[in-house]
Amino acid sequence: MNWRALTAPAAQTLYPVHRMHGVILLLLLLFTLLLGMGNSLHSRLLWVGEQTWPNYYLLNPDATEPSCQLEMDVDAEVRKRMDAYKPDPDDLFSSPPNPEAIRQSLARNLELCQQEYVLYEQNLEHATPALGLFKTVEQGLADFLLDNIELTKYLFIAMFAMAAAIAALDADHIALRLPRNRAEWRFSQATQFVVNGLMVGSLNSYLGKLASSPGSEGTVDLQYAWAAVFGLFMVINVIRFVNVPERMKKGRLALSSGLVMPLYCAMGLIAMSYFFFVDGYSSGLAIYFGMMSNLSSMFINIGLYVLVGMVLKQTRLPELLLNVIKPYNLPAPMLASVIIFATAFPTAFTGASGIFILAVGGVVYDELRRAGAGRQLALATTAMSGSLGVVLNPCLLIVVVAALNKEVTTTEMYGWGFWVFIMSASLFSLVVCKTQGNWKPRPAPGAFRASLVQMKPLIPYVLVGAIVILAIWAILGLKFNEYSAPMILPLVMLALVFLDAGSDSRDAGESRLQAFWKRSSYAASDSAVHIGALLALIGFSICLGGILERSDIVHALFPENLTSPWVAMLVIVVMLTFIGMVMDPFGAVILVSATIAQPAIQLGIDPLHFWIVCLVAFELGYLSPPVALNHLLTRQVVGETEVLAGERTGTFWHRYERLLLPLVVMGPTLLLVAFVPMLFYAL
Question: Do the beta carbons of residue 239 and residue 205 sit within 8 Å?
């Protein structure tokens, strides 16, 4: 792939464009977005109703006149009831009623009746057609939200099915390398067919257990939906096994051919082998993968963040931001340092590191190469540009940690995460400038003024983004924070795409609306591929984590005679780094929350400290072989040719700098974060 082609200002896409599927997925994501905003909209409607009609909550346009007696002679009614009393000869404990109790009861009933008439008169006073219409809309929305609480799960399954099907059709599931001949292509499709078949078999086993469980109808329906999804994947695998692309040449399998197996397949095979042969738990794959349904809102947010990243790629924002620092003529080491600091915050806003790499990794790589950076430094910086921001506000990963673990809050983690980011980014700058040399900037005269001029094109983007955020706050009362970011950011980015589709950045004869629609559909098409590949990886990561949860590994690592928090922290660092190497961070957080977190905290490790260490270990993990997810995504963006070209010449460091530099930076960072804070509470 030609990495320079990714920086074109016109609409761009990395993968074959599925316009129809992209549009459907875009509408599906927007519907889930609106459904997520439903509670805010209903709260806003109640607020508007109360401001417009006092006591709106009590008003009923269809109220009828109360049937109670408004006027009553209480004393006469008491005498009447006393005279009507006749003792029961068969009741030994029969006694005449208490006249004072009757009088109090009648007085209370009379007071309640008066209140009902006052409310009825208020209803008559305010019972206008406008109130009736407004009440119908507000209560209709409330009923819809209550009746469709479970709808989110099925929307998530539909989103996953469509996205993963597109990833399967295009053979874009994440693997350590791409197939290079027809035999490897068929091997990849065959392993996917086997794993999808194992999932169908596991679902069938789980359905057999649910058949004898009362009250499991809702769960049964979900399992049938999942079975249909994986059955569809099997059909796609058969089609792609038979129809091999013409670009694939004839060849044989080699020892390295196993690398073309998608990572989710390797995880599925390992997990099912344990569940079936060791644990005798044939339904384990279905149960652990089905955990995604219980956290469907979180995974839909991941889809929305992917959409944000792909929409960002359809704008000129990355280029315009880089234009601000171009006048300073920064040498490659200094530019790499600036990029690491500058890209961390957009990474946080796109929810996860991989999404940012897919969105703007091509632009980052391009600018570094233009500044004179070698391929290895450019690749390392591109991979790390999407990692250091996972500890910053409003990154979704920290929201997930706080949601699953009540011992920590997002505010605490974002606060300490900021200083961890400063330390790791500074260490990166130190290492790069020391190893590369020639780091001192030599700005041309007037560079500062030229930089200010380059900021001018950014002003409309800032204004439009601010207007959208303020409009959502004014209409829905929804403030922008880490919880609302997945819902607000897609709308902000779509507005920026519409702004960006000006006459100077669209094709001749194309209207702004046509350019907007074209770019949005391209973004949705790319989103489909990444959502499918990412969610499949997350789902089977959870399945792989089930081995850790059901085995005695945790008890072996944290035996009862282990009392030293220092030894426990050493074990945790090694274990979390290994988990980060082989699992997606979202699946890893779910696993660690269920298995390692509580034993570690019980050994005296501070909960906030534990989770900060966990995030840094994950950062190191997905920059480290054997999987090195961020490097795989970087390869997807810049092309395998560029990666291989960088390994042909130079010393060992220069040939493998893209792998070694992140380890040299994040390794010491993890050790400092893990052990220095313990000096203040574990001595």
Answer: no
